[in-house]
Amino acid sequence: xxxxxxxxxxxxxxxxxxxxxxxxxxxxxxxxxxxxxxxxxxxxxxxxxxxxxxxxxxxxxxxxxxxxxxxxxxxxx
Length: 77
Prior knowledge:
With 77 residues, the chain is α+β, with helices and mostly antiparallel strands.
């Protein structure tokens, strides 16, 4: 995966069975990238996982695959 957007798309959409309802938007302000994931309310629990384990794993994978890029990950339903 070459870009942060491709990596986020791959990780989020591989978790959810109805990935066509998920929107991922990236916006950059100076050195910080804001990643906004908009999903149906009934699927947000699948993205977050029990005690936040899945979302933490997603953040870890993004940090490992793009170590020089600073980002925040926001989930909206």
